[in-house]
Design brief:
With 394 residues, the chain is mainly alpha-helical. It has one domain (10-386): Up-down Bundle (Growth Hormone, Chain: A). The chain is built from 15 helices and no strands. Helix 1 runs parallel beside helix 5 (129-156), helix 2 (42-70) packs antiparallel against helix 3 (72-92) and helix 4 packs antiparallel against helix 5 (129-156). The two termini are 29 Å apart.
Length: 394
């Protein structure tokens, strides 16, 4: 990207997000096989994601205090190794309760990564974080793309899902060591700024009292919900409704991820003051694509739609956070953590809700949730962007 200088820590954050996303989407791609082996229904399948995100939210809530005490990179290193350990336990789980137990470690480790990678990038690039956050977060979607294609292909070749999870655990362990060594070097060279802040609880209370924070929190919930809906349920929908091999379901999710990669890399070209326009255009396009889902019947048409849905969803998570940092006072770490705490329920609640709707009325009916999320996001950011009163940052 023009005039962008990716540092070693940017690369370490990027590959960590890539591995983190792999741990998230492995379950959706393996879900049908796992459900058959353990005799689970759609609600129980969605419950796997719900348990992970509940733990993730819990960690998010305390990560601000922990970061002020131990530092971001120390917690990110811990989170990476916890997540790797959770994947190994997941692979060895003999039953559904043990799968949920493995999700505890995965949720805790993932919570630390989710909470602190974006604030670390914000620290590295204050004043121009929107472009860097979109580019770094593009690697989250790279991880989704690589995982769904490889896992879908391996499952179609009758490779056990447990072996696949072991392989992911090994990869994540290696990436965790890379982040560890990179962060140590970055601290020694002064690449990571010392921006420790005091009284995180006091700052949290001030943020929670602001109406503007809750506007952005709702936007994050909707943005996270749209991403989770397509990422988690697209593969299962394709396999159930088109009676295909896991390879086809993985391809659908991969096209969605490809759209997100292109969208986020493209968002790296957008200047900071154009972020609200970018979000609004993306939400409007996403609404159109989500409604088009109910008018198509062919598998190829669905694949094309998933790609454009990925383009629409791409900018939401990093751009809403960066836009909020521009519009609100205070340290961005606590703001990012609180906004992630608001956004992550969009993953768990929407995934579980769609599973319940799918059990009752079919999975296609469950996809009606997505247009509601796009419309709510469009209205929310539309109202916020019309408010010309901008917070003055200290």
């Amino acid at each position: 990207m023009k005039n962008m200088k990716m540092t070693t820590m940017d690369i370490a954050c990027s590959v960590s997000l890539m591995a983190y996303s792999a741990s998230m989407v492995a379950t959706p791609i393996c879900l049908i096989v796992l459900m058959k082996e353990m005799n689970l229904n759609l609600s129980e399948g969605g419950g796997i994601e719900a348990v992970r995100t509940i733990l993730l939210i819990g960690v998010l809530l305390i990560s601000g205090l922990a970061a002020s005490r131990f530092g971001k990179t120390a917690l990110l290193n811990t989170g990476g190794f916890l997540l790797a350990a959770g994947l190994f336990i997941y692979a060895a789980a003999p039953n559904y309760p043990m799968v949920l137990a493995a999700m505890i470690l995965i949720g805790v480790g993932g919570g630390l990564l989710e909470a602190l990678i974006n604030p670390l990038v914000q620290d590295l690039h204050p004043g121009d974080s929107g472009r860097y956050l979109n580019v770094v977060n593009a690697f989250f979607s790279v991880g989704v793309l690589m995982t769904v294609l490889s896992v879908g292909e391996l499952l179609s070749r009758d490779i056990p899902w447990r072996s696949i999870l072991v392989g992911l655990g090994v990869v994540f362990t290696l990436i965790s060591f890379f982040f560890l060594f990179s962060s140590r070097r970055a601290h020694k060279t002064g690449q990571i700024p010392d921006n420790s802040y005091k009284n995180p609880l006091s700052h949290t209370k001030k943020l929670l009292k602001k109406r503007r924070f809750w506007v952005f929190a709702l936007a994050m919930l909707c943005g996270g919900g749209t991403e989770a809906a397509y990422t988690f349920w697209s593969a299962s929908y394709i396999q159930l409704y088109y009676d295909t091999l896991p390879r086809a379901g993985a391809l659908g999710t991969a096209l969605f991820a490809l759209g997100m990669i292109i969208g986020r890399l493209g968002s790296g070209l957008i200047k900071q003051h154009h972020l609200p326009t970018l979000i609004l255009i993306s939400a409007a396009g996403g609404l159109v694509f989500s409604l088009g889902f109910f008018w198509i019947s062919g598998l190829i048409s669905l694949m094309v739609l998933l790609f454009f849905a990925g383009l629409a969803v791409a900018c939401f998570w990093p751009s809403i956070q960066s836009y909020a940092a521009d519009r609100m006072e205070g340290d961005s770490t606590m703001l990012f953590i609180l906004l992630s705490t608001a956004g992550i329920p969009g993953f768990s609640i929407i995934v579980w809700t769609m599973g319940k709707i799918g059990d009752t009325w079919g999975l296609k009916a469950a996809f009606a949730v997505i247009p509601v999320l796009f419309l709510t996001l469009l209205i929310t950011i539309g109202i916020e962007s019309r408010n010309s009163a901008k917070a003055v940052k200290p």
